[in-house]
Amino acid sequence: MKPSGQDEINYLDFFRGGVPAGAIFYMNLGGLRELVKKRFKLRAHFSVQSEVCLIGVVSYFEAFCGDHFASILNICPQLLVRLKKNGRDVSLDATDLLEVGLQSTHIGSIVAERYDFGTPQSINSLYQHLLQITPFSTQERKRYEQILNDRNLLVHHGGISTMKYSKQSSLVAKSVHYDSISVSQADFLEVAGFLESIVHKTVKASHARLVEFMEQQPISPSKVQEKAIHALLWVD
C-alpha cells in the first residue's frame, strides 16, 4: 500500500490487491473450471479435483463478498454513518490508521475485516445495512446453506458424514460416519454457476445503489472515485 501523500491516488487503490473483487472472483473461477475439466490419473470413484475446486470456489466467493463490501466503503466512507445507525461497529484503531496512513483509501477495508461474511444470513444482513440490498433471495439462501454444509464436511471431516450433516441433509441415519459425499464435475459446475450468478447480481445491484446514495446525499465524487465506481462493474 502506498504511504499517504507520497504518490497520487489511482482508482485501483480503492480495491484490495488493486483489482475489483468481481474481477478477481471471475479470474479465480475460470482457473477452477479449467482445473476441474482436466483428467488426472485417479481411480474412477475418486472426485478429488471437484471436491478441492468446490472448497476453492466457496472460499473465493466469501472473499468476494468481503472485498466488494470493503471496496464500496473505501470509495464512499460516508456509508460508515449508515452502518453505525444500523448498529455495526465502525470504530478504528488509531494504530491501524498510522499503519495505512491517515488519508488511506483503505479505511473501509479495516472496518470490513471485523465483519463475518461466512453465511448467507450475515452477508444479506451486512449488505442490507450498507446499501439496502440482499444478495440472496430466500431460495438462494437455502441453496447456499446446502453448499456450505458440503464444503464444511469436506474441509473438517474429509467428506465423511457426521450427525450434524445428516440432520442438515437427506442422508439416512445408518449412513452416518460411514458414507461420504461425492462431488462430480457436474456438481462443481452447477455450484460455480450458482455463485457466479450471485456475484453478478450483487455487483450490479450494489453499483446502482451506491450511485443512488451518492446522488441523494449529495456527494460529488472525484474523477478518481468515478473511475473506481465504474470499475466495480468489472465482473468478467
Could you explain how this protein is built, in words?
With 236 residues, the protein is an all-alpha fold. It has one domain. 61% of the residues lie in helices and 0% in strands. The protein has ten helices and no strands. It starts with 20 loop residues before the first helix and ends in a 5-residue tail after the last helix.
Question: What does the secondary structure layout of this molecule look like, with pairings?
Answer:
Blueprint (H helix, E strand, L loop, with lengths): L20 H17 L10 H28 L3 H7 L8 H7 L6 H6 L7 H12 L6 H20 L5 H6 L16 H32 L6 H9 L5
Helix pairs in contact: 1-2, 1-9, 2-7, 2-9, 3-6
Characterize this entry briefly.
Helix content is 61%, strand content 0%. With 236 residues, it is mainly α.
Derived structural class? mainly alpha
How would you state the average pLDDT, rounded? Answer: 88
Strand % is: under 5%
What is the H-and-E element order?
HHHHHHHHHH
Total strands: the figure is 0
Q: Domains counted in the coordinates: how many?
A: 1
Radius of gyration: 20 Å
How far apart the termini lie comes to: 25 Å
Give the helix tally: 10
Poorly predicted ranges: 1-6
Q: How does the major sheet shape up?
A: none
- Rough outline: elongated
Characteristics:
mainly alpha, 236 residues
